[in-house]
Specification:
Its EC number is 1.14.11.2. Residues 248-259 have a biased composition (Basic and acidic residues). GO terms for molecular function: L-ascorbic acid binding; metal ion binding; procollagen-proline 4-dioxygenase activity. This protein is an alpha+beta fold. It has helices at residues 15-30, 34-43, 50-62, 64-68, 71-80, 83-95, 98-106, 116-132, 137-141, 156-168, 172-189, 197-210, 214-227, 232-256, 286-295, 302-305, 318-322, 345-355, 391-404; strands spanning 144-145, 148-149, 310-313, 325-332, 335-340, 360-361, 364-365, 372-373, 378-379, 381-385, 414-419, 424-428, 448-455, 461-462, 465-467, 472-474, 481-485, 499-501, 504-506, 509-517. It has 19 helices and 20 strands. A hairpin with a 2-residue loop joins strand 1 and strand 2 (148-149). Helix 2 crosses helix 3, helix 6 (83-95) packs antiparallel against helix 7 and helix 11 (172-189) packs antiparallel against helix 12 (197-210). The model is unreliable at 1-12, 29-35, 45-49 and 269-274 (pLDDT under 50).
């Protein structure tokens, strides 16, 4: 019997689509025979009986999209087909026979097995979500995200793998968090675990040292050597830690003087205890504000809220007299508005269907060279669609003119973007700044004067659009569009429009961008002499 073949063409597909293909691979393997499921159940940690394994598989199969929209499930799926699968292959060799393993091995070119890079990406995405949304490690390990139970949780082995991936990335902070959680889970699982205490202690001790706690690292290393007295790396590390502690002790003695008295002037016995003051929003770094805005922790002042209005808009256009735009003001200076019910389900499905085969990793423009390149601060898939390709694309693009009162003759093509689990775009400007001399040069249409951002999906948690200089958060709502001008009336960039796409916590975020350029807008949005001075990017952001 041959395994079902799956076309290996997903490298440039949206994350949701890639995970579906990976699921199909898992489904093909799991359904190959009862023996496979039996072995997979034995390979899991802690071991589970076949009925439990099949029950989870059936529950996931009933709604694959919902199952894969959970970052914990996404990570587990990739892990099961990378590190866990190697163990499955070993057990299959023991239980079923080499022919079965050979069949699967030969089918790797047909089946879309995830790679170590996929596993690392899933782990990094989970860490990003943990940091941005302040998720407790223990809660994530139990399958709880922001107080909602989404999955059955992680085993000690799953937590260990998250710690190992963090360690490989040089991220010792998360290594400590997840190795400690692996230790806690291992104790709960007792003997039913695939990871050993010495392995955890080795990673935990060194990462603790790298975090600056030498004494704690030495204590963990001693605990490791109590279990494995001949552990060579631990023996070497213990000697090094002891030497480091001795150096610090000697330095401390030198500061105190040979007679043990202080060299410096004795401190004043009178003292006051100062309570640590909370930072105000204006004192926070942009990163702190960005994460708070993504969590919805920064609220708009009532003094600003009371000035915002909702209205029906027809702009004197006969077409809009019949069906006016539903306009909601989100901010006044700069003016950011939300238009409701401006993109429809059939249009969204057409756009998604046409974009998926063209998806590529989204790029950013290098401000020095003007070249497009991949960057870790933008994780998403994007594609470009032209108006002539489908009447739905044309309708969505032309609707931009109704919302902005500007021409789309010099606008860029419709950019479709999918943000999967952990997908994000850190704070940036849509317009080109003065030092970005080569930006949009090839287009010959000037700078980006305005942005129209269509939301083509609801997002269960996360995925907001936040403006970090004015502390505004917009939340995705299917069928709406956010609109703002990137340039002031005098053509200078409006630095208050700096914005970001928050990581998707659960679900999948689909958007479409339409960027309008300066050329062709001379009579539609005439230049003025007001606000002639340019904003200054003072480097704090």
């Amino acid at each position: 019997m041959e395994l079902m073949k799956i076309d290996d063409c997903t490298r440039h597909q949206p994350e949701e689509y890639r995970l579906r293909i990976i699921w199909a691979t898992a489904n093909s393997i799991a359904s190959y025979s009862y023996a496979t499921v039996h072995v997979a159940a034995r390979a899991s940690a802690p071991p589970r009986n076949v009925e439990d394994y099949m029950r989870e598989h059936e529950e996931a199969s009933r709604n694959i999209q919902q199952y894969l929209s959970n970052p914990i499930n996404a990570y587990l799926l990739v892990k099961r087909l990378t590190t866990d699968w190697r163990r499955v292959e070993e057990l299959i060799t023991e239980d079923v026979g080499k022919a079965f393993v050979a069949n699967i091995t030969n089918s790797r070119s047909d089946l879309k097995f995830p790679t170590e890079e996929d596993l690392n990406g899933a782990a990094v995405a989970l860490m990003r979500l943990q940091d941005t949304y302040k998720l407790e490690t223990a809660q994530v390990a139990r399958g709880v995200l922001n107080g909602v139970q989404y999955s059955t949780g992680l085993s000690a082995g799953d937590c260990f793998e998250l710690g190992r991936q963090s360690y490989n990335n040089g991220d010792y902070y998360h290594t400590v968090l997840w190795m400690q959680e692996a230790m806690d889970r291992m104790q709960e699982e007792q003997n039913h675990t695939s990871v050993s205490k010495p392995d955890i202690l080795e990673y935990l001790a060194f990462s603790t040292y790298m975090q600056g706690n030498v004494v704690r690292a030495l204590s963990m290393t001693n605990e490791l050597l109590d279990i494995v007295p001949t552990h060579q790396r631990a023996l070497g590390n213990r000697a090094y830690y002891q030497e480091e502690i001795q150096k610090k002790t000697n330095e401390s003695r030198k500061k105190r003087g040979e007679d043990g008295s202080e060299d410096s002037v004795p401190p004043n016995p009178s003292f006051t205890v100062t309570e640590k003051r909370m930072k105000s929003v204006s004192e926070m770094t942009e990163r702190e504000r960005y994460e708070m805005l993504c969590r919805g922790d920064i609220k708009m002042p009532l003094s600003i809220q009371k000035e915002l209005r909702c209205r029906y808009v027809d702009r004197g256009i006969p077409y809009l007299k019949i069906g006016p735009l539903k306009e909601e003001e989100a901010y006044l200076e700069p003016r950011i508005v939300i238009y409701h019910d401006v993109i429809y389900d059939d249009e969204i499905e057409t756009i998604k269907r046409m974009a998926q085969p063209r998806f590529r990793r989204a790029t950013v423009q290098n401000y020095k060279t003007g070249e497009l390149e991949i960057a870790n601060y933008r994780i998403s898939k994007s594609a470009w669609l032209q108006e002539h390709e489908h009447h739905h694309i044309r309708a969505v693009s032309q609707r931009v003119e109704l919302m902005t009162s500007l021409s789309i003759d010099t606008a860029e093509e419709l950019q479709v973007v999918n943000y999967g689990i952990g997908g994000h775009y850190e704070p940036h400007f849509d317009f080109a700044r003065r030092e970005e001399k080569n930006a949009f040069k090839s287009l010959g249409t000037g700078n980006r004067i305005s942005t129209v951002l269509y939301y083509m999906s609801d997002v269960e948690q996360g995925g907001g659009t936040v403006f970090t200089r004015i502390n505004v958060s917009l939340w995705p709502k299917k069928g709406t569009a956010a609109v703002w001008h990137n340039l002031k009336p005098n053509g200078e960039g409006d630095y208050m429009t700096r914005h970001a796409a928050c990581p998707v916590l659960t679900g999948s975020k689909w958007v479409a961008n339409k960027w309008l350029h300066e050329r062709g807008q001379e009579f539609l949005r005439p230049c003025t002499l007001e606000n002639q001075s340019a904003d200054v990017d003072d480097g704090r952001y």
